[in-house]
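Dear colleagues,

I hope this message finds you well. In preparation for our joint manuscript, I am sending the MOT14 protein (Poecile atricapillus) sequence together with its predicted structure, so that both groups work from identical material. I would be grateful if you could confirm receipt.
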Amino acid sequence: MYASREDIGYDFGDDSKVGSKPIKPNPNIDGGWAWMIVLSSFLVHILIMGSQMALGILNMEWLEEFNQSRGLTAWVSSLSMGITLIVGPFTGLFISMCGCRTTAILGGILNALGWILSAYASNVHYLFLTFGVTAGIGSGMVYLPAVVMVGQYFQKRRALAQGLSTTGTGFGAFLMTALMKYLCTEFGWRNAMFIQGAISLNLCVCGALMRPLTPKDLCEKYVVRSDSEENRAKALSHSTETIKSNGVLGEEPENKEEVANEEVLVSVQHIEIGGKSGSGRSMYGLRLFKTVSQLTVTVRKGFALWYSSYFGAASLFTNRVFVAFIIWALFAYSSFVIPFIHLPEIVKQYNLSRQDNVFPLTSIIAIVHIFGKVILGIISDLPCISTWNVFLMANFTLVACILTLPLMQTYVGLAVVCALIGFSSGYFSLMPVVTEDLVGTEHLANAYGIIICANGISALFGPPFAGWIYDITQKYDFSFYIAGLLYMVGIIFLLIQPCIQKKQPREKSTEEAQV
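The corresponding structure tokens are as follows:
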């Protein structure tokens, strides 16, 4: 079902002892409240990613309003998309300390504030701060928890669950494009952004649905996985073992720190019990001290986990395939974002506005994108299919479409290529699955935060780069060619690194035999 040992070049140990003790399955794993988590994540994708895919409408309004170059104006959309993803590692810190629910609710408030403040923009630079930075950070604080929570609640049907939840991007792009066109036509772009800010407050409701799993629930999840799908468990646990062998998941210092923290809390409780005979004021002070101590312990544990994942001995960067995955992400996302931002302008240049008004090309990408995510998720869940191979094939298809798009100058030709772009980009639903296969569920939040941060850098520079190329050449052709070639470089890194990983265990075993 998932990326196999041979696919990503890993060597697995024996995990047969895992899950030998029968434990009653948790009804919320792969069922029950897990589907509410999928619904919450689906709505988050509609409100955040869908809205960002409709920014091409606002981009044209900003060009007319502020009369700035295409390259400069495109920075507004790029900042919003890029920062949403770039803040992933820092959102991982918030999740480690506060949990997914609190992080998502705070992000929803910040996102809505960014949209509302942008309605009063007097120039493009004002939008950089309010829409690009403020709304972007808020979006990032909701997006990562939405993805992580689905990964925590599902084991057997992770690819399908992630596929269903991320179809919100396609639905959102279709719905928000139509809504944004209507609002801009009827009320103007300023009032449209104000209304969108009010709609974005629903992100707080989505965050409230993200009920956290207890450590006991997570333990039961792994036991059920091991009992029912032992081979798959070996594949998933391998990367964790590999990291452990390199000193990645060094838990001894962390355990010592936990013991020290528990001792502090126990001492506080003893003081509280001993001081019950004291005055009410001193008891209030003790309770306040206990609350502060518990908060301090939570913050220290969260920061320690976050820091060790990125910078300490437990660095995720010791996993070479994961590093190749990061390099791929640096080039990949811009190839998907550039068409959404600049297609409305390309259609206008080719005098295809009449056909595009009937059925916009961006809506074609969005609709087919929905089916692509679901179908690729179902295919990846088949026992005989490797998620890794499906992921790579979809990437190759998307690269071919990006390189072909400039050659199409008719509406039908553009529509066919856009449909293929929408379907092949459905691999986005597989990214959390592939990431979890590489690093394990415990490090999914931090690892996926790094991946979407790399995607954010790609989204940040892609559309302005395309606009800058147009300002020089008066054509978008070279923008797509360069983006496609850079994307191909990222895919080559994904292909090369597993081959290197395969050779290393063999070389190591040969050396041991000689010794």
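For the figure legend, we might mention the following. The chain has two domains: 28-211, 311-495. Confidence is low (pLDDT under 50) at residues 1-23, 224-260, 503-515.

With kind regards,
E.M.
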